[in-house]
Amino acid sequence: MKYLIGNHKMNLSEKELKVYFKDLKKVAKNASNYVGVCVPFVYLPLANKMCKCSKIHYGVQNMHYEKQGAFTGEVSANMLKDYNCELVVLGHSERRNLFFETDEMVNKKVLCALENGLTPILCVGETLEQREQKQTNKVLKKQIVSALNGVKKEDLTKMFFAYEPVWAIGTGKSATCEIAKKAIVFIKQTILKLYGLTDENLVVLYGGSLNAKNVNEILSEPEIDGGLIGGASLKVQEFEKLINFKN
Predict the structure, then answer these.
(1) Number of H helices, E strands in the chain
(2) Helices assigned H by DSSP within the chain
(3) Active site residues
(4) Domain 3-243 is in which class?
(5) What angle, rounded to 10 degrees, do the helices at 177-194 and 136-147 form?
(6) What is this structure's pTM?
(7) What is the mean pLDDT of each run of 10 residues along the chain (247 residues)?
């Protein structure tokens, strides 16, 4: 089984999303893969309503690490749980780069999500400049070690990880299968070494412009457990091509 999770970012209207979920439920019904969608906060009630009694797992794209307080514009884990939220994307490169989220902030959010029974999708990845300077592994290790500070060994299987090469997000560029494989293997080895493990069922997704053209090449690699999908998840007919991937 592969894990295919759509990240809608700041896209689609309520009207469009109603049609989207109606169509996606039909696709997901017979899917052999895990199907997830992360929507903007305002559409979480709609996801909760429309995804009941379906195979669609749903969530959001961020959250705050405090339970409550004077944090204008933020949303807490408890608020998400009111709508049976399952998934929460954390540490996405757009949050890190556009909204200046630090490794320490991401770590607090990961701990909060796990404490509240949410499934964090922890994103890590390097910029083009860092890759060209051969800093990829150094950057990934730093992000992983920081984000997992205080996370218990038994919680590793309660979360997803996503390799997101920043240079391949929203650019139309995509990592080759070999690049994605090497990074994901490194991520898994780093986590296992950090916890003194030799084997664990870690789920690491690829999150850099995965689409119908490259899905077979990339997801055919056993080490790549699925995808965190942006643009290709916005239209059900496109997302369906990824959801129906078979080895």
Answers:
(1) 10, 8
(2) 14-29, 44-50, 77-81, 93-98, 103-115, 128-132, 136-147, 177-194, 215-219, 236-243
(3) 92, 164
(4) alpha beta
(5) 40
(6) 0.96
(7) 98 98 96 97 98 96 98 98 98 94 98 98 93 94 98 97 85 80 97 93 92 93 96 97 93
